[in-house]
Write a structure and sequence with these properties.
The complex is a heterodimer of chains A (69) and B (291). Chain A is of the alpha+beta class and 69 residues long. Chain A has 3 helices and 3 strands. Chain A is globular, with a radius of gyration of 12 Å. Classes of the chains: A alpha+beta (69), B alpha+beta (291).
């Protein structure tokens, strides 16, 4: 894990990835591996970004996230 | 009224208590072992429990709790004084201590292996804790796990076990010769009694242990033992909900919770018989846990 504003960590059993905002202390656990998460974040049509509450929560971690709504 | 002053060494902390409420000092002397009482100050926290002012000394008398001049709780019925002293100590540690990653959980150890039992109120955590502590396990804490950041090491904070409502009768029938506090009736948690753990737990209250398992218990009188293994993402979510201060600890706090779930066996256990759950822990969890 590298020191940055948001820590991203994928669990060793591939059960998911946790995001931790070092500034606010917020965490978010997603049932996706890091590769799956990166893939979904790059695709505005992905299931992850189609869900409005998930999309809104993700903005706390990735303010620059480009999402077509 | 006589003011009594007691210096209590409850590792890893020391508390100085000043009180003019005899019921509080009597309960402390009854519940804590002689080794907890010190002659000289060694204080981390200055606590006081005193009668309410004015008419409140005479009409429906109240107790006021102060920690280093803060008054975190509203005055309570005088008979709730000892319970508020216990909750006040929890409040001090939960709000002030940043040396540890603190998890709202009971901690018990057997064969050098510690199990965390994080759970919300009403899950039967304290009843389970009491049963295990009097049946071959060592109590490290009934209320909060003090984790050394970046490790699996949990530091004991041995205190009386807080029993509520129906669990009071149950515990008194299980352990008739144990030391119980007087009952605090109709507190915001219902009727409350504190139970002194066995001497083995007090005598080893500076001996840390390594966490090997995390069990989220849930008592349901209608359900026989059902154990579900949690994956690491599920366990992290559940554990983080019970971790008071890990987010304030920044990267070290976060990594402590991540390591805990990755290096521990994690289960959710629904039970209606504490002995059955204990058997599961002893036969199916501890033998397969590596230190």
């Amino acid at each position: 894990m590298k020191q940055q504003a948001v820590l991203t960590y994928s669990f060793k059993d591939d059960s998911g990835t946790v995001l931790f905002n070092l500034g606010s202390g917020e965490t978010m656990v997603l049932g996706l591996t890091r590769a799956e998460l990166e893939q979904q974040l790059q695709n505005p049509e992905s299931d992850l970004l189609q869900n409005s509450s998930t999309r809104s929560a993700l903005r706390s971690f990735f303010p620059d996230l480009r999402i077509s709504s | 009224m006589t003011l009594s002053q007691q210096f209590l060494s409850i590792p890893p902390f020391c508390f100085e208590l000043t009180t003019d409420i005899p019921l509080v000092s009597k309960n402390i002397e009854h519940i804590y072992p002689p080794s907890a009482f010190k002659d000289s100050p060694c204080t981390d926290y200055f606590l006081s429990l005193k009668h309410g002012n004015g008419l409140r000394r005479f009409i429906r008398p109240q107790a006021r709790f102060l920690a280093d001049q803060h008054e975190p709780f509203k005055p309570v019925d005088l008979n709730h004084g000892f319970a508020v002293f216990e909750w006040g100590m929890n409040w001090c540690v939960a709000t002030q201590e940043m040396r540890f990653v603190i998890i709202h959980a009971a901690v018990l150890e057997k064969d050098g292996k510690a199990v965390l039992f994080p759970a919300p109120p009403g899950s039967g955590k304290s009843t389970l804790t009491a049963w295990l502590a009097f049946n071959g396990w060592r109590l490290l804490s009934d209320e909060m796990a003090l984790m050394i950041p970046g490790s699996q090491t949990v530091v004991p904070f041995v205190r009386p076990i807080c029993l509520k409502n129906r669990s009071i009768t149950l515990a008194k029938s299980w352990f008739p010769s144990a030391n119980f506090s007087t009952i605090a009736k109709n507190t915001h948690k219902g009727d409350v009694v504190h139970l002194s753990p066995p001497s083995h737990s007090w005598d080893n209250n500076t001996v840390p242990a390594q966490v090997v398992a995390i069990v989220f218990p849930r008592y349901d009188k209608n359900e026989a033992l059902t154990v579900t293994q949690l994956n690491q993402a599920q366990a992290f979510s559940a554990l983080a909900e019970n971790a008071f201060n890990f987010s304030l600890g920044g990267q070290a706090g976060f990594e402590t919770i991540v390591q805990l779930v990755e290096k521990s066996q994690c289960y959710e256990a629904c039970y209606n018989d504490v002995a059955e759950l204990a058997e599961f822990l002893t036969q199916d969890v501890l033998p397969y846990a590596n230190l």
